[in-house]
Design a protein that fits this description.
Belongs to the STEAP family. One of its GO terms (molecular function) is ferric-chelate reductase (NADPH) activity. This protein has 483 residues and is of the alpha/beta class. It folds into 2 domains: 174 residues, 3-Layer(aba) Sandwich (Rossmann fold), CATH 3.40.50; 252 residues, Four Helix Bundle (Hemerythrin (Met), subunit A). The protein is 53% helix and 8% strand. An 8-stranded mixed beta sheet has the order 3-2-1-4-5-6-7-8, sandwiched between helices. It is elongated, with a radius of gyration of 31 Å.
Length: 483
Amino acid sequence: MPDDMARPLIRGRGEGRGSRCLEASMCDPDAPVIGIMGTGDFSRSLARRLVASGYQVVVGSRNPKCFIALFPEEVEVTSQMEAASQAELVFVAVFPEHHSTLVELKPALAGKTLIDVSNGIRINLDGPSNAELLADMFPESSVVKGFNTISAWTLQVGPRDGSRQVFLCSNSSSAKSSVTQLCRQMGFVPVDMGPLSSSLEIENLPLYLFPSWRVPVICTLGLFIIFYLYNFIHDVLHPFVTSGKNLFYKMPIEVVNVTLPSVALVMLSLVYLPGLLAACLQLWLGTKYKRFPDRLDRWLTRRKQLGLCSFLCATLHAVYSLCLPMRKSARFKLVNMAFKQVKEGVEDSWVDAEVWRMELYLSVGIMALGLLSLLAITSLPSVANTVNWREFSFIQSTLGYCALAMATLHTLLFGWNRAFDASQYHFYMPPTFALVLILPLIVLLGRLVLLLPCMSRELRKIRRGWEKTRHIRFTFPEVVSHV
C-alpha cells in the first residue's frame, strides 16, 4: 500500500474547483481547530499538511487580505485575534524577534497550547531559548517546543526516514500529549525530550553543520595534503632536479592516484586503532567501569565517519586507476615501448613475477573495496536497523579487520620487493607504500595479540563485569565552562 504522505498535497486557490484535500479525504468539520500565527513559507506548508491530515486550520495575519490567495480554500485566513480566539492549539510561526507583537493576544491565548517552531540565527549555548522567552511572555499558556527541525519542504512532500522525527519538550504533560497526537496524525514520529529546559538543545540542532564530521574531514584533508606533497617530491621533483626529466604531467592523475590509497589505508587503520587502545586500557585497569580519556572517547564516537572517509578515498582510487589507460601519456608510453622492443629485437617481454604480482594485487584490491562497500552500506541507519547487534558487530569488527588485512596485503603486493631497492629511495625518502604500512601493521598485530587465549579470556571477563579490584570509582567528565 503506498504511503499517503507521499501523495501530492492540496492544491492552492485557483487550481480548480471543489475540495482541495487529499484523494478520498475530506476535512472533518468536527476536527479540532488548529491556529497558525504567521504567513511565511513554513506557515503555508504547515497549513497544507494540517488540512491534508484532516484538521481545520485558521491562520492569523496582520494583513489577511494580502495573504489569503497563498493558502488553500479550506484554510481560513483572518486576523490574529480572531484566529487566537477560534483555535484550540496554536502554532507560533513568526520570527522570535517578532514574538512581542503577539502580546496583545494574551487574553485570547490564555489556557491554550502554543507550539514554538522558531530557530535562532546562531548557536546559543548560554540561553534562554526562544521557547523559554515565549513561555515567560505567555505565562497562562502552555508552551511546547517542536517542529523546528522540520523544513517546509518536508511538510510539502511528506516525511521520509530520519525527517520523520519531531523533537518535543514542554513543562505541561497534557500539552505535550496533545502535540504528540497531532504529530502522529500528520505522519511524523514524536520524540519526547523532556521539560522545556531542553528547548535550547532542540533549537541548536538545525544550526549544527556536520559536527561529528569536522575532525574526520580535517584529518582526511590533512593526510591528503601531506601524502600528496610527499609523493610530489618523491616522484616528480626528484627526477627533475637530478636528471632534468619533466614529469609534472603526473600531478593531476598519477600523484593523486598514489595519494588516495595511502589516505584510505591510514584512515581505515584509525577506525580500529582506538578500539585496540580501549581494550588495552581495560586490561591494564582491570575494569570496564572507569571512563576512557576524553580524547579517546571522542575518537571512538568518530569511527563511522573515519571509515566512510576511508571508503570515499578507496572508491576514488578505484575510479582513478580505471582511468589510467585512457590518458594520452599512457598511450604514448605504450607505443614507445613497443617501438623500443622492435628496435632491440625483443620478441617476448613476459615476466612471470610481474604478471603474478599484478594479478594478485588487483584481486586483493577488489576484495578490499568490496568489503569496504559492505561496511559503508551497513553503517546506514536504514540498513543497520534491519540487523541485530551480533550481526552488526560481526560485520563492522570481524569483516572490518578482514578489509584492513586485504587493503594491507594490497599495498604489500604493490610494493613487492621494491622496498629493498635503493633506487626507490629518492632524496633518502622511502617510497610511500613503505610509510603507510606502518600503522595498519601495528593495528593488525595488536589485534592478533588480543586474540590470544590468555588475552581474549581476560578481556571477555572484564567486559562481562568482572573487576580486578572493587575500589573502582566511576568519574564523570569535567565540564568545560564557556567564557
